Amino acid sequence: MASLQALSLCSCKFSFSSQNNRRRVIKATNNIPKFRKTHLSLSNLANGSSMEELVLKNDFTSNNISLQTDINESEELVIGKLYAIKETVADRVEMHKNICEQRKNWNSLLLTSINTIILGAATMAGIAATINANGAPLIALKIASTLLYIGATGMVIIMNKIQPSQLAEEQRNATRLFRHIQKHVQTVIDIGSPTASEVEDTMNRVLALDKAYPLPLLGVMIDKFPSAVESAVWWPLRRRIDEGKELETNYENEKRYGNGWNEELENEMREIVGILRRNDEADYLRLGGIALKLNKVLALCGPSLTILGAIGSGFVGIGSFEESSWAVMLGVVGGALASVVNTMEHGGQVGMVVELYRSNAGFFREIEEEIEFNLKEKDVRKRENGELFEMKIALQLGRSIAELRNIADKGHDIKEFGSKLF
């Protein structure tokens, strides 16, 4: 009986397991067509429209890569040009620095040599007047004194013509401005993404500076005795293409205000321009004119006194002592006065003072033109950022932003200078 129950239980398990196996087989066979259908649909999709999309994506990617390559090559070319300009500017800095030292030495050495010659000639004229004999010693002293005066006259004329102290000041200014360009180029490179316009602008600045402060003397030297003192100009003419017509009239407010600009800031900048033009620039031009007139007088007096000394030396010892006393006075006193005049002119570096006033006036004129250049641009998006521009102007004038706004509020009634630096 027990064996029958075990046999029936075993047959039941076998039949149950066989049914489960058939179900599993059926389920497995049912899942196979679904997988095949899915696989077929994906392959059909890939073989159909997706191939066209894949080709388009590949073309778009290759175009982007080629465009990015062109952009990188263009930026590398611009950076290479900027580095070339930087090297040239660095060479200019050394050239102007060396020539500044050379012309500074000219001023000191020529002044010392000329005064020594003049005082030697005056001494010989005085000694000749004390000799009673009319022989060779008197003639030798007279000739030597006269020749020294004539030589000193020629040297004084040349020195007054070139004004070595003014030449040295020109080269100092050129050195400082070329260093400023050098730092500007390095800043543009460090910021990244330089443009071709930066290269053109820097080139124009270098060429304008070469023209403002030339290295040679013959032919291109700045006139040391002009009819009137004018502001030095070392920057290129600012040009802006008017593209306002291309903008829609619906954006008039957006063009006028934005990018840090507003009506108050524009009025403030206009007042600053007026103050700098009326007070600062005009005052330095006035002082430069006074220094120029003084320099002209001294430049005429120096050679005139040496010529009188030469004439007096030639007539020493002719006639009686009373008759030749005027000659002694000219020979001795004329030389002493000529030495004093030369020391005042070149030892006091009056020519350098004229150039200093001229360059200071040019400094304010550059600020004025920079402000006007931004204000004339109707589209504020093409201007410098207003807040940054205001801060830059304040720093250039040695003032805080609050002080800058304060003097702008006073307007035409203010007698104060716009700058605290000079």
UniProtKB/TrEMBL annotation:
The answer on whether this UniProt entry bears the keyword Cell inner membrane reads no
InterPro entries, A to Z? Chloroplast_duf
Alphabetically sorted, this entry's keywords are: Membrane, Transmembrane, Transmembrane helix
Membrane-crossing segments per the record: 109-133, 139-158, 297-318, 324-342
Q: Which Pfam families match?
A: Chloroplast_duf
The protein's name: Petal formation-expressed
